[in-house]
Every structure is written in structure tokens, then in C-alpha cells.
Design goal:
By secondary structure, the chain is mainly alpha-helical. The chain is 66% helix and 0% strand.
Length: 71
């Protein structure tokens, strides 16, 4: 049985904190929508395809430690 994924809004908030990334920047990079995080915080529903795209962006984005090592 698959383990359920944590809710997308909580995952995004944790990602923003970990990466010290502005919500508008995240929205532009992950969803091509600068208002994406604001809308999610306001209760916007997300299609499964969009959910998968956002999670893939977060999974493939390097961590702050990896970014520091690359510099």
C-alpha cells in the first residue's frame, strides 16, 4: 500500500522555509504563476497533474547545502 503524501500546502510552506524562498518566486518557478502560493493559502484547489508538477519541482530543486557546495 502506498503511503499518502502530506498535504501540498504544508509541503510548500516547509519548502519555502527550508529554501528561504519567497512565495512569488516559488510560484513563478514551480507553476509559472506568481500568485500560486497566495491562492493555495486561500484555499485554491489543485488538479492532480498540477500537484504532481509542483512536487516534482520541489523534489528536483537542490537543497541549500547542495547549492553551497556547488558554489
Amino acid at each position: 500500500m502506498d503511503t499518502p503524501l502530506p498535504p501540498l500546502p504544508e509541503t510548500i510552506e516547509a519548502f519555502l522555509t527550508l529554501h528561504d524562498m519567497a512565495p512569488v518566486t516559488f510560484g513563478r518557478l514551480a507553476a509559472k504563476d506568481p500568485h500560486f502560493v497566495r491562492d493555495i493559502r486561500g484555499g485554491r484547489r489543485v488538479w492532480p497533474e498540477t500537484d504532481a508538477k509542483i512536487r516534482a519541482f520541489m523534489a528536483n530543486h537542490s537543497t541549500p547545502i547542495e547549492q553551497k557546495e556547488a558554489a
